[in-house]
Amino acid sequence: MKTKTQAAVDWQERARQLRIDGRALIDGHRVASLTADAFEKRSPIDGRVLAMVARGQTQDIDAAVRGARSAFEDGRWALQPPGARKKVLRRFADALLSAREELALLETLDVGKPIRDSLAVDVPAAARCIQWYAEAVDKVYDQIAPTGPGAIAMITREPMGVIGAIVPWNYPMLMAAWKLGPALAAGNSVVLKPSEKSPFTALRMAELALEAGLPEGVLNVVPGLGPEAGEALALHMDVDAVGFTGSTRVGRRMLEYAGRSNLKRVFNELGGKSANIVFADFDDLDRAAATAATGVFYNQGESCNAPTRLLVEESIAEDFVARVVAHAKDWAPANPLLADTTMGALVDEGQVGTVLRYIDSGRKEGARVLTGGERLHPIAGGCFIAPTVFDHVGNEMTIAREEIFGPVLSVIRFRTEEEALARANASSYGLQAAVWTTQLARAHRVARGLRAGTVHVNQYDEDDMTVPFGGYKQSGNGRDKSLHALEKYTELKTTWIRL
After folding, report:
1. pTM, whole model, 2 decimals?
2. Which member of 304, 313, 383, 403 is catalytic?
3. Cα–Cα distance between 206 and 214 in angstroms, integer?
4. Is 304 a catalytic residue?
């Protein structure tokens, strides 16, 4: 809910006055690319040029990794007591909240999401993540093994060293925080490569971390293109692990790069094609329909965990789908800089083209468009697509199999519980899923049978920092959030002492 102060802000005027620094941040300093190359970053809202951004390449990644390695080896961060790291990270979280309006505006201009979401969700969630790991770091204990009286075997976790973090453009701040929180809390140094489509909040976050007391060199941010800066980071021989969030296609490359370099650990959090199963016995179909629409159309559909496959029991399908279509009309795209906008712009023209091609394939393969299915123009030069619902979708259709990353919902009908479970699992992805039923036994059976990292029951996307996020199958092997994420960025050591 927006406050009176937020509602009174003229975000369009602030956007006109904003001056953005697109240089990299390496070893504590803002710097141009060593090659002097830069690229133009435009806003998907109206096509305006936001800034020139440093086009990081191998030389820049080398410099960032050297700075991170030096910072790690001299212990300026890694050897600080957990309580000391906690204080710095808490100040970092507070700084993010203090800069909420600036960060939210950068996020909205960069990727096109509504300013109200950037303000109410993205910035606070990123700050909450950093704060949570700050609080956790001095509450995680090592172990003593039960070896008997002749020896002591200590089982300890130590920071890995230099972490490469590569994050996507759909939630730039939050995905960065999910990597930075546990990696920094554990005592590592980090080189962060944001998407070339969304570099600005990552760069500003790193500046705020420095102002909060994070030592120079501990956090470096190198913007650039994936095949240049991203590949150089993943191939680097002095990077100990890579935390990657992005497409399954690029996730495969991350594993290849590890094999071609130093066998660094790779933690992939990849795509999804989540199934949302609604049984006829559920007693609040309007809430389920509203949640189904929100899950797919929030963030313009650019969410890896969006429930893009809606499986509905045949006996209620006509009524339920009509309810979903009615709720879809609440998500008409508009200017993201207006405080009451619910759906903004897709990230760029390339993504608009991708989504339109999927919509076209759905029509050609026999699915029926109930609403949407076209590009809209609420702002000249912007990247907007209407919320789209397809009915009578078969599992074999492209729109049911591939991740679209746009506001497109596919309705798949079923008759039995067994059929619903089989269709839900007939996917190469396994990130999240949901089941709506009032039958306790059915909820447990279906939840157990779904091959997904998270299963929601009678809700979708309720969340907390205390639970892990990640998937099965080609949705990756990484787990962000919770104490489990600390395990990714630490080495497990046994020290055996004979008495």
Report:
1. 0.96
2. 304
3. 9
4. yes
Residue-wise pLDDT for 126-168, tens only, equals 999 999 999 999 999 999 999 999 999 999 999 999 999 999 9
Specify whether 403 is catalytic. no
Structure tokens given for 462? 């309720």
Q: Is the dihedral of CA 183, 184, 189, 191 positive or negative?
A: positive
Under a CB-based contact definition with an 8 Å cutoff, are residues 41 and 199 in contact?
yes
CA angle 128, 26, 135 (to 5 degrees): 25
Cβ proximity of 95 and 77 under 8 Å? no
Residue 61: partners with Cβ closer than 8 Å, 6 or more residues away: 191, 193, 222, 229, 232, 233, 236
Q: Which of 269, 302, 403, 417 is catalytic?
A: 269
For residue 87, give every residue at least 6 positions away whose Cβ sits within 8 Å of its Cβ, in sequence order, or none: 134, 213
Task: Determine the Cα–Cα distance for residues 214 and 217; give it in Å rounded to an integer.
Answer: 9
Sign of CA dihedral 355, 358, 364, 365: negative
Q: Who's near 461: CB < 8 A, 6+ residues apart?
A: 295, 305, 432
In this structure, the dihedral spanned by the alpha carbons of residues 175, 181, 183 and 188, taken in order and rounded to 10 degrees, is 130
Exposure b/e, 353-377, CB count within 10 A at least 16 = b: eebbebbeebeeeebeebbbbebbe
User: 52-78 pLDDT, tens per residue?
Assistant: 999 999 999 999 999 999 999 999 999
Report, as an integer, the average pLDDT of 328-334: 96
CA distances from 307 to 210, 406, 420 (A): 38, 12, 15
Local structure of 384: helix, strand or coil: strand
Q: How far is Cα 499 from Cα 484, in angstroms, rounded to an integer?
A: 33
- DSSP summary character for residue 78: T
Looking at residue 17, what DSSP letter applies?
A: H
- Give CA–CA dist 278/199, Å, rounded: 39
